[in-house]
């Protein structure tokens, strides 16, 4: 088997929209995605000869497949995460299968949440980052809106004002999601606390890309001993808040996210649905994203049920809608309404927990630590966790949350200068 020869990259020769630099450093083209794959050829050759596969042959073939999974872009083809593709394919397939018969609908709408929860616990246990949940959330939102436009609106039961309300709700959800993704509030290291830096020209895989902001990653080593010389009490506090990974002394209520690989101010939790942490800078926008999504989803569900089950009340139509499966279009809309109810139910539970935590001035991280260390009171079957540390009363807690200021950014600081 001949070795593949890589073209030498000329730094002055820019990439076209369909070209990219592969994992071997060679210049490749999207049109050659199925050509010249030594790893796949070797695996097939061993399979044809009934020889045992090498231990790493399949992993190398999968790595080559992932490297060639790209889409055209302005400055060169961009690599696509394979976890993004599965929701785009599986969600329409499952919903169309569920629309064929009500028994299939029950089976699919029961299996899908179970599979999603299983995948969540699988990835959460490994502390890995994945775009699956963000892709599923965005595609569910846009696909439901697409079916609403193409299947429900042509029936004539939705007026222009109702259509505009749903459209504005979808737009506001996306806008606040984008604002939430800008950053949860990263802890920035002071230049006076550093004595050496190590620069990585390629971002590390376990560091949040939003934190790096497209810049080179620098690991900054701080002088921990110099920050702990002002008394025994201050030493004990700083040692307790010292992050050995980020080399910073965390302020109160801050925490290190093992998934993002950075320290976050007033860390609440890492939300897989936005693929980012929820912290001091984006907690309010995160709640607004949930509120706009739920309002839009519930209003859209009511419009769909009024259209496909016009003779039934909205509340009863979800459980009893005669002859809805006689027409595939109506069955598909009814199935999507049920799917939206399942998603809305999960997010409504999340929003309820968030509102309760804000009312008691406790973060999700603090609530989990209090339960683990048995230092907080658990009320209403675990829905309310009162740590009794930061709570100043319902009104004062909400005023403090709504007026919570964002982290100040030094004007002469770049993300590449920080841990």
Automatic annotation (TrEMBL):
Reaction catalyzed: L-cysteinyl-[protein] + hexadecanoyl-CoA = S-hexadecanoyl-L-cysteinyl-[protein] + CoA
Pfam family, one: DHHC
EC primary class: transferase
Stretches assigned to the Palmitoyltransferase DHHC domain: 238-367
CC terms in the record's Gene Ontology section: endoplasmic reticulum; Golgi apparatus
Location(s) in or outside the cell: Golgi apparatus, trans-Golgi network membrane
EC number: 2.3.1.225
TM region(s), chain numbering: 93-119, 131-149, 161-180, 286-308, 328-353
Keyword Membrane: yes
Membrane topology qualifier: Multi-pass membrane protein
Keyword annotations from UniProtKB, A to Z: Acyltransferase, Golgi apparatus, Lipoprotein, Membrane, Palmitate, Transferase, Transmembrane, Transmembrane helix
Family, similarity comment: Belongs to the DHHC palmitoyltransferase family.
Domain-related comment: The DHHC domain is required for palmitoyltransferase activity.
Name listed for the protein in its UniProt record: Palmitoyltransferase
């Amino acid at each position: 088997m001949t070795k593949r020869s890589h073209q030498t990259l000329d730094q002055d020769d820019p990439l076209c929209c369909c070209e990219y630099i592969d994992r071997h450093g060679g210049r490749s083209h999207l049109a050659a995605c199925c050509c010249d794959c030594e790893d796949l050829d070797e695996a097939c050759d061993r399979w044809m000869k009934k020889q045992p596969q090498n231990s790493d042959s399949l992993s190398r073939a999968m790595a080559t497949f992932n490297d060639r999974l790209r889409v055209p872009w302005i400055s060169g083809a961009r690599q696509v995460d394979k976890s993004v593709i599965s929701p785009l394919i599986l969600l329409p397939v499952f919903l169309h299968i569920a629309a064929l018969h009500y028994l299939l609908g029950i089976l699919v709408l029961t299996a899908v949440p179970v599979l999603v929860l299983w995948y969540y616990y699988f990835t959460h246990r490994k502390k890995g980052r994945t775009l699956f949940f963000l892709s599923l959330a965005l595609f569910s939102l846009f696909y439901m809106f697409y079916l609403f436009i193409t299947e429900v609106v042509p029936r004539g039961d939705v007026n222009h004002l109702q259509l505009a309300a749903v459209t504005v709700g979808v737009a506001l959800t996306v806008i606040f999601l984008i604002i939430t993704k800008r950053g949860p509030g990263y802890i920035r290291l002071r230049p006076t606390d550093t004595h050496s830096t190590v620069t990585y020209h390629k971002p590390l895989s376990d560091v949040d890309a939003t934190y790096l902001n497209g810049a080179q990653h620098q690991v900054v080593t701080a002088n921990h001993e110099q920050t702990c010389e002002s008394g025994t009490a201050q030493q004990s506090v700083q040692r307790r808040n010292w992050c050995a990974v980020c080399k910073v002394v965390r302020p109160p209520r801050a925490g290190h996210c093992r998934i993002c690989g950075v320290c976050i101010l007033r860390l609440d939790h890492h939300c897989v649905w936005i693929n980012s942490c929820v912290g001091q800078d984006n907690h309010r926008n995160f709640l607004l994203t949930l509120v706009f999504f739920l309002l839009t989803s519930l209003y859209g569900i009511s419009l769909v049920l009024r259209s496909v089950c016009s003779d039934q009340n909205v509340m009863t139509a979800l459980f009893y809608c005669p002859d809805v499966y006689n027409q595939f279009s109506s069955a598909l809309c009814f199935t999507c309404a049920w799917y939206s109810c399942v998603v809305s139910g999960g997010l409504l539970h999340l929003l309820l927990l968030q509102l309760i935590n804000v009312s008691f001035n406790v973060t999700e991280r603090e609530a989990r630590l209090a339960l683990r260390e048995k230092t907080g009171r658990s009320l209403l079957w675990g829905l309310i966790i009162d740590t009794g540390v930061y709570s100043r009363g319902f009104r004062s807690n909400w005023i403090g949350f709504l007026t919570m200021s964002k982290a100040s950014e030094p004007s002469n600081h770049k993300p590449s200068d920080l841990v």
